[in-house]
Structure formats: structure tokens, C-alpha cells
## 1
Amino acid sequence: MPVHPNSLANLNPPVKPGEILNPNGKRTAGASVKEHWNTLARHNLCERELRVIAEDLSQPWARRIAAQRMLRAMESPDLADFDDELKALRDSGINTKVVKKLKTKTKTYTQNNEPVTETDREVELFDRSGADVDRIVHNTDGAPAQSMKVDGFIPIGVIEFVTPRMRGQIQDVEVTTLPPASEQ
């Protein structure tokens, strides 16, 4: 069964090279922050200079946010500053900056009239790729072209993932409709 033309009427066509999606020239907040991020990156500022920008209330908000995000991407927290066992590991030469979360459970019980102590440790490590940097690269270079093939109806959840920014990036959507249940 062919797709009814009205079902495709409100879809945005793919973006053509050189086409301007924002004809009124209004910059979005994300575009402003990204512009400042790229400017700060081109100037190859050191951490101290980024801190001055991030804390200077006279700077434009987007420039301060870009500097703050750059500083956040460079953070290297260390839980060993708060835990004696991790401090001992750090002092022995182990890189404890990769530890994001440390959970220690100690239980003591009696076995054969002797106290026995068991310690369980749960360690979560940082994702060293950096989610902020991944988001910046994704939003700068764009998402890869996506396609999907859907048999039957398109559930609401599938439609909702198409954000306005993604509309021009989805290149191939093939919809096959099923006949109504009464005809099956």
C-alpha cells in the first residue's frame, strides 16, 4: 500500500549544501557557545587564562560557559585525596585519578569463636574519553547520516527522536505500511 502524501507533508526536506536554515540570522545559544569554544581553542589558552575568563562577570555569558566547559573537560579529580587506602595506592605509584567511585563494605562476624572481617570493594572508573568532548565533536561535525527501515506503523517514540537539528541529516527513511487489522 503506498504512503499517503499527507503523511509526508510536514516533513522537512533534506538540507542542501549552502542552504541557510536560519534566514533571520538569529544565533542560537548553542551556536554562540560553540563559536566562543572554537575561538578560545584557536587562541590555545592555558588553564590560568581560561579561569580568568570563566570567573570574569564582565565577559559575555557564552564565552564564560565555553571557558568553564573547557576547564571541566580538563579536570582530573582524585578520590585518593579523601580515602586512606587509595592514598596508599597512589603513593605506591598507581594512578588513582581513574577511580570515579569507591564503595567499601565491611562486615564482621564470628566463625569458630573467632572474629572474621570481610571487606567488599566496588570500584567504578572514569570514562576517559570524556563525554563533554564527545558532545562537542558530535555537535561540531554533526552526526553520521542515519537511515531506518520501518515495517508497519511508526511508534511515537521513533518519531520523537527526530529533533529539528537532525531533520536534515536523516537521508533514507523507508516506510512500509501494513493493511488495517480488518483486512489481514
Note: Residues 77-127 form one domain.
## 2
Amino acid sequence: MSESKFQRQVIKEYEAKGYYVIKLVRTNKNGIMDLLALKPKEEPIFIEVKGEKTVQTPLQKYRESELKKFGFSRVLLLRES
């Protein structure tokens, strides 16, 4: 399965759980996670989606640690298996 197809699957799964999912395409932060899942009264979830053969870049790892420093504990790396 392609990474984009897997990403669409992840979006559908989170929306089925009641989340409002935003795909972060162009932001002022290169390397930011792919998706932002929001649900009332819950902490936001930042999600990086990877295909089975792709890996996080150093910049993506830095952004992940940066988000955690800002107190966002729900930062996920979902890999197609």
C-alpha cells in the first residue's frame, strides 16, 4: 500500500473515533507531523505517517522532540506494517 493510501486510512480511522483530522500540508514549520487530530476536551494528537520502507528524517525527529518539549505528549509515529 502506498504511504498516501495508508495516510487516508489513518484519517478515516481517527474520524470514525470522533476526531477532527487536519492534514498539515504547508506550514511555517518544515518537518512538522503529517496530521493533527482534534477532539473536544482531549489533548491534540500529532501523527506522522510512514510507509513500510520510509523513515523519519532528522528534521522530523527534531520536530517530534520539539512538540514534546512544548508539552504535547500525544505525538505518534504510525508505520504501515
Note: The two ends are 9 Å apart (CA to CA).
## 3
Amino acid sequence: MGDSMRNEEIVTKRIKSLVAESKKIVRLFSARSVGVSRCRAWIAAAISAVSKAGLEDSSPYLARAKIIYNMAAGVPEQNVAELMVELSDLLERLIEDIEIGLLRSVEIRISAETFDDIIDHAESYLEEGRKDPAAVLVGVIFEDAIRKLNHLNGNDIKGKNLDALINALKTAGVLTKLEAKEALAAAGLRNEAAHAAWDEFENEQVRSVISFTRRLIREKLV
């Protein structure tokens, strides 16, 4: 995914902006400089941001945010600002949990599911005797999974090749010695497929990388 800003960073930045904006709106509402519609619009925007934070349906954050949103439509106008304050406090706690790694972004979970689907396609190609496109597909997914694992563990990924990223995960204890060895072999296949070195690998190597990458995603990213 290159060096583009991750979904988690985008959502966190948006939530921080909403928290800062809420304090201003509450002051203006108290001074009667803005109306209740401005407060309700902020609450709607806050709910949208929370819904993009990758929370489970059972999350207390999401559950309480929805309750506040529903209450805002029915309480007396003078009480809407109080709900804003409560929701703003909730957003601040949510940011803290995101930043210390207690929550994974929806991007990671969705990517894991998407990765698994693409690996299925790679496996189908291999079964059809098309090892080359299978190797290209699984190689791309393998590399992205390694980069996401490093990102999740706070490792700098800019300008680093796959071998360096794999070693960083090994040093951090995310990958065992054996897993790191398998990952380096997968990185070799990724490099060969990326450079169209089709004669440098066989079906069994592709099959092995497919199996390892699927396991990596299910055990480390989901």
C-alpha cells in the first residue's frame, strides 16, 4: 500500500479534530452564538468517525455512541450540548486506546479478509497449472502482510526491503525463528515473481508460500 496514510491514522486524526471542534461548539452554544442544529450535526459526524474506527459490534464505545446519537434527537434542546460533551469525552478515551494499540483498525481486519480471498485465487491458479500468476498474487499479499505486521508493531517500514522487515519482526518476537526462515523463503519467491524469473521456482515453492502466507494472516493479522 506504499507510504499512504493508514486508515487508523486518518480516523485518529479525524477524531482529534472533532474533539477540538466540540469544545468550540459547546462554548458558542452556551453563548447562544450557534444553534442546536450545529450540535446535532457534530454528533452525527462523531458517530460517523466512530463507525470507521474498526470497533466490534459489541464494543462499549460504539454502543454508547449510538445511544447518545439516538438521545440527541429527542432530548430538550438545552441538553444536546451535554450529550456533545459526553460523546467528546468518549472520543478522547477512544483515541487513547487506539494510540496505545488496544484497538486494531478496520483496515487491518478488512485487509485480512481480502487477503484470504486473493490467496484463494492464487491457489486456484496453481491448481489450474498457472504457477506464475499464482506466485505474483501470493507474493503481493505476502509483502503487504509483512508490512502491515510491522506497522502494527510500530516498526518503521519506509525504505526497508522485505528481508529487513522480516528480521525486524523476528527481533520483536512477532515471528519465531522458524517463521522468519519461512518468511525469507517467501520473500525470495516474491522477488523472483516480481522480476518475471519464472524458471527460478516450481509449483511446490508457490504452494508452500501460499500455505505460509495464509497461516501468517490468520494467526497474526485477524
Note: The domain at 106-221 is CATH 1.20.120 (Four Helix Bundle (Hemerythrin (Met), subunit A)).
## 4
Amino acid sequence: MKRSSLNLKNEINKKLSKDKRLESGVYILARDAFNKAKQKLLNTFLEHPVTKELKEGASASSSHGLPSGNLFGFIGFENNADPVSQLEKSLRSLDINIFRKRSVQSQISWSFKINLPTMEEFYSMAPMPWAQGMSWLREMEGKGIPNLAQYMNVESEHSRSTAGIETSREGSSYLKIAYIKPMIQQFKEDVNKIQTRIISIK
């Protein structure tokens, strides 16, 4: 009796695995869940104070504890730079690839892969404007960008951004801000909630 029951389950499973409507439904559900997670990530990125401040450029106001000026001038970007453009482009290009279903005993499942860059790849999209091989993103989310105490917001033709210069004041501190890492961690948690096992025949 048990053997007959198992054979019946397998037969049903085979038929379901060939059902194109089922497969189409799975793809729609998975992509919809992914798109919601992606949009949430993009919204968080675009609304983040760091993104807004760097997009606004040298004239932006700051909310990061700088003695004066803003993050754009503190890091030292060229006046016409768009420091977050590559990060935004990468997040907008995220996509999901749903693989062929897999049948194991009484269960049908699908798996998926997302083209999410590694943190090292994100760092490479945010080069330090005055130091080749360094990343302002890595420094800011790591030990912090140094020389906060030496930064002063004085408009100067000698400044790359025309929004700040270094001074000879004594002391040193670091500007450290959590930015991309928490967003990516939350995105990973969101996409991991996508239910890959669609049907289970008991």
C-alpha cells in the first residue's frame, strides 16, 4: 500500500513538473518578490542622507557632524563629479535568474541567482578622488575617512570641489558612516525570504 501511494505521488509530481502554467506562475511570484525587494533597496539608497548630499554636490547642506561644509567637499570630489552614479547604476541593474525546477521525491522546487556585486566590487565603484587605489566607501564604512579636524569649509580655487580645504589645525578624527553595507544586508534578508519551494505533495 505504501509503495502504491509513493508511486502515485511521483506520478502526480511528474505531471505537475510539466505544467507550463505552474512554471509561469512560479516565475511571476518569484520575480514579483524580487522586484519588491529591489525597489525597497533603491528607495533606501536614494533617500539615504549620504546619497542625497553627494548628489547635490558642493552646495549641499550636511547632517554628518562636519564642523562646516559638507561630505562632498570633505572627501574632495571635483566640482562636477557624481560620486554615487556607479553605485546607483549597479543597484538599478540587479536582476534575478530563475533556474529550472528540480523534482526530489514528493517535492518540486526552483532556485534562483541574483547578480549582486560583492562589497569589494561596490568599493571599486567609489574611488577616492585624491588617492589612487583607495575607496572613499571602504574608508567611510571601515575605520573612517581621516582628517576631519583639518577640514574647513572655505571656498578656494585650490580645492577640487571649491567647497573645502585642509587647515593646519592640530588634532585628527575620522568620519565614519554606515551606508551601503546595512542596505545590502537587508536586501539579502529580503530576497532570502522568497519561497523557492512552491509545491510539496504530502
Note: Confidence is low (pLDDT under 50) at residues 1-9, 149-156, 158-172, 197-202.
